[in-house]
Amino acid sequence: MDVLKETHYFNLPSQANIYTVTHLQAANCPHKMLVASLKRDIFCIEYQDSGGALIPTTREVSFTYIPSGAEIISVDAFNKSATKNEFVIGITIIKNGNLLDSYEFYLNIYSEWEESDEFNIDNIAQNCLNVELTFTPYQLTHTHLIVWEDGRIANKEIVFLLSGSDNQVHIYREYTTDHLYKEVENKEFFPEFVKTPSPVVWIDIHFDEDSTERITAVACECGYVRLTKVCLKTNKLIFNFSTKLNNYISHVSMYPDETAVPLEGALANLSTGKLTRKGALNLLVVNTILPPVLFEDVLTCGLSKYVSLPRHDYTCVLTCCQIADVDFDGEKEILVGNSAEEIMLYKRDPDKGWCLEELKMFSSPIISMKYVDLLEDGVNELVVLSMKGVHFLQHDFLHVDKVLSDKIKELNF
Known about the structure:
- The protein is mainly beta and 413 residues long.
- 7% of the residues lie in helices and 52% in strands.
- It has four helices and 30 strands.
- It has helices spanning 121-126, 186-189, 298-301, 397-410, and strands at residues 4-11, 21-24, 32-36, 42-50, 53-60, 71-79, 87-96, 103-111, 128-133, 137-149, 152-164, 169-175, 180-184, 200-207, 213-220, 224-231, 236-244, 249-256, 260-262, 274-276, 281-287, 293-295, 306-308, 318-324, 333-338, 342-349, 353-361, 366-372, 381-386, 389-395.
- A four-stranded antiparallel sheet has the order 1-30-29-28. Strands 2-3-4-5 form a four-stranded antiparallel sheet, with no helix packed on it. It has a four-stranded antiparallel sheet with strand order 6-7-8-9.
- Strand 12 and strand 13 (180-184) form a beta hairpin.
């Protein structure tokens, strides 16, 4: 991971968890990160111009209806507008109840209710809708709810998904006329979210190119993993595969395997000598104790074709993952964070398969990772949430240029 250098860091006043960092993809202004610690502190992080240099700025945001003593469990956000800013931010909390040793759980939804050219996080933080929960919340995420009628998409909107201790995935949909978010029956729109054997700890959703099919992966505390495909035109299950890995699952991630294949002559890409072609859909499952498992070409093979990634240390806990081409060689790498204060980088060797290529050390256990373009320069940064704070890693383009130059020499360009 020499191509990524840590450039900035800021400390958190208390520990965060795997659900408390989210990306704010703003329009007409720099993108931002929202990071929450368990003890009510929520920070907005962005890069701002300071005398011609872009530096990260961090400030605390005071969200209403998070009482003293409450703890934040999960955070998620999305922009409803493609051209302006119309953010909706969801925060789940736990607080002491009225009775001794009792607790209350809430989903707080913050929004300005209308799109704007300006992004004002403070205004958003003051407009709160409380949804009382009857279960302990886990992951809060969002996806598109797509409804087909008469051979066309009749409705497409963004809804919140919230997994809970009741072994269910709950869907919260906006009713614009009332300015309210209400829970809807998941069987009506998401038949794949039937009850699981234990709480769902991670959800990942992928749509095909024409939005006619939805592929959903869910993973549970007990190690149960389910992969489903739904036809959005009929709202019926096309397939439903499941397996059990007999240990706590901390993260799942689906990604298209865009294999880079060698080319010859003038058609070859000058930087890699390869052409990226559309490949199969893969599913990575990160198990806390056992090696990560990569299920390959799941649309064709379901969960029957898989490979285990090697581990160098069986005493640590694996916490998170990120799939990205971090060295710009045309092949995606797998990054896995762990409790031993490391990020493990896996690369696929044509002859040996997936190998543990590098380890990058940090000062505290890794909790979560995001690979996003915060500078809006076309190149992503790796944002790493550790137990003590947030690390920003940027690409070392001197190293990248050397890699590309070596590739060109190998290809005799």
